[in-house]
Write a structure and sequence with these properties.
Blueprint: H1 2-5, E1 47-48, H2 74-84, E2 89-90, H3 91-108, H4 117-130, H5 137-150, H6 155-170, H7 174-178, H8 186-201, H9 208-220, H10 226-236, H11 240-289
Antiparallel strand pairs: 1-2
Length: about 290
């Protein structure tokens, strides 16, 4: 399917537009439920202010909500994020991040949720693609830290596990990638655990981040044939049709996000040129006066 043979690289999805404003909706990507989820990106040069709340509690990585310890509300998670990262975020990024954290909160506190590295790889891939081109690398990393901490998980573990799976996938091929169950190793053990839980022997909650994580493994192993994804899903006891659908929606989302970023860049360039044109006569007059 097209969703499988297409790259997630933003550089391959660039499109141009002459419109001054781009508004779009993405339906049911970030949510793991059947309810439709929509968010809108409005091209605007303004930044969005933030507020703060009480400090974030100690990070918990491998956990799920319990009766004795009720999960936080969506508002509490969002406020924890705003508390951890106090600087303004450009609206084109902030709009996506706010929707993203709401939907990941819902995933995170489902009773069947359990952290796994493939999910982490998928989220890291999504985050890095969405935040590609952010003005500051330092701020981009700080936002990532604040985001994961707000969900009471460990941002370093997300990064470490994502890197671990990426390194493993680069050393695989089409055959070895789907033959993990017959081999021993740390990543092989992770995949076996997922297969057992997804097969009904433990808690497993499929999400679109997991789908993106699977695709990333295929991409790095240079195993892009649709049949390989089908076999990998079968080995992991994952519904391939759900994966195909979610990858296709994600690809379309990235394509439209690229358009929004291009329009934002065009707007900034035009405003910069106008400022230069306005200041040029002033500089000339000052030079004559001197």
């Amino acid at each position: 399917m097209a969703a499988v043979t297409s790259s997630f690289s933003l550089s391959t999805l660039t499109q141009s537009s002459s419109q001054r404003k781009l508004t779009f909706s993405s339906t049911r990507f970030f949510s793991s439920d059947s309810d439709a989820v929509r968010f809108r990106l409005s091209l605007s040069p303004h930044c969005v202010g933030v507020r703060s709340s009480n400090s974030v509690s100690k990070m918990v990585v491998r956990c799920s909500s319990s009766v004795s310890d009720p999960p936080p509300t969506v508002s509490e998670t969002k406020l924890n994020f705003l508390k951890a990262y106090k600087r303004p975020i450009p609206s084109i990024y902030n709009s996506v991040l706010q929707e993203l954290i709401v939907q990941q909160h819902l995933m995170r506190y489902k009773k069947s949720y359990r952290y796994d590295p493939v999910f982490a790889l998928g989220f890291v891939t999504v985050y890095d693609q969405l935040m590609d081109g952010y003005p500051s690398d330092e701020d981009r990393n700080a936002i990532f830290q604040a985001y994961i901490n707000a969900l009471k998980e460990d941002p370093e573990q997300y990064r470490v596990d994502a890197q671990k799976l990426e390194e493993w996938a680069r050393a695989q091929n089409s055959t070895s990638l789907i033959d993990f169950s017959s081999r021993e190793g740390e990543v092989e053990g992770i995949l076996k655990d997922i297969a057992e839980r997804a097969g009904g022997k433990g808690d497993f909650s499929y999400s679109r981040f997991f789908a993106v994580g699977l695709f990333r493994l295929l991409e790095l192993a240079n195993a892009m044939e649709p049949t390989i994804l089908e076999k990998l899903c079968a080995s992991l006891n994952i519904n391939k049709r759900s994966v195909d659908r979610d990858l296709d929606v994600y690809r379309n989302l990235l394509s439209k996000l690229v358009q929004a970023k291009e329009l934002l860049k065009e707007y900034i360039d035009r405003e910069k040129k106008k400022r230069e044109e306005r200041t040029e006569p002033q500089k000339t007059n000052e030079a004559i006066t001197k």
